[in-house]
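Record type: monomer structure entry
Structure origin: computed from sequence
Chain ID: A
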Amino acid sequence: MPSTVIAGMEYDPVAQTLKISYVSGQVYLYRDVPEKVYKELKASRVKGRYLRFFVKDQYPFEKITA
């Protein structure tokens, strides 16, 4: 299901990194994210809400674009 917040996402299971591209154009890289969390986010009907409660402020992150 499309998201009004997330434009795209990529997951690296080896590095356990989740790259989120937001509709605003900003891109963040979240580290130490279990594959289970990525799969649940991907399957979620409300991706922005899942991201807010289960990813943001739960895992270390860095902004990789302005």
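Annotation 1: The radius of gyration is 11 Å.
Annotation 2: The chain has a mean pLDDT of 93.
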